[in-house]
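Appendix B. One record, verbatim.
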Amino acid sequence: MAACSLEGESDPAPVATTVTRLPATSPAPPQAMSLSATASFQPSSTSTIPPPATPAECSHGWTRLVGWDFASVTPGLPNLVRSAPTTSGAVVSQLLPGSIVKALEGPRCADGYVYWKVEHFSIPAGAGWTAEGDLSDYFLEPVDWVTFSGRGVSFIMPGGWGCEAQAAAAGTNEYGHSWPGHIHIIFSAYPAFSEWLPGIYVYPTADLPASFVSPTFGAPLMVRAQVKSLRLGERAVSENGNIHPVFNSRRLYYYEGKTADGIYTVIAVLPVNAPFLPNSYNDPALPAGGIPFTDHYSFDWSAYYGQVQAQLDAAPGAVFTPTLEMLDVLVESILVEGPRNSPFQARIPNDAKKAGDSLPSPG
């Protein structure tokens, strides 16, 4: 277990923030986190997982998963989710390729398949049985994902990204937009080149000013592509600013949504890079497939932005870094606890504010 720094807390007993990797031999793993966004998640301290079957009992060493691993559905057909680990079990859901699941129990072998009980927000009961494969082809593959938890906010993310959770005070950005006290989660080892600090913001919805909700950061919107509705909000790949070329350094995956009960508003500001766009003015040449531009007042910027937006829309999500599918999985797994020990009462004095508190707030 690797602890992440927790900043901006003045209580003598700060809330613990952790990123957890759970070994297969853990004698008493914690409660499996529901991936459904809600405002009232309270984990049980007594939940345990039955020990996985040994290879001699079931998959003969073929399985690549262990209990509490994360796994991804392989490309191709969706995975069926059943009520029991057998082909006679009722089909309760499907998992689309690229879905990230948590293996809770297994393996169980029946009817030529190796089954695991997995957790995913799309499964009506929260968890169900799906096949890892048929002892020949794999339908699930292990992925290096971890669970982040801090200040009442939790989600899953790729391992190695780093994390930091802050209680951020109310403030106003350079465009005159104000925001209330909130939780600000920063990724310290995020895998994309950007001028923006990657982060997730969680606000009490009732405290937001009426003019707050906006994807523009106060600057003009240049492009807004890859718009997609997720379970509880909408994401897009956008760039804002004054007249200039579209660079990787300023392009963002922007998500805005609410918890299922509407109590909290969640905004994710996560940079994404595309191989066909320059990183910045310092790039010596336009990347292959890039849209040419001339940095001059007479240049037809409107046509240029239209071409770039069309190119971004046409690009598969997998060509971006990080992939759009990966970021969708992360934001859809965000879970916010209820007001118990409310983390939104900013308790940091003005002279102890962290650097993140002065970042331009979304909106």
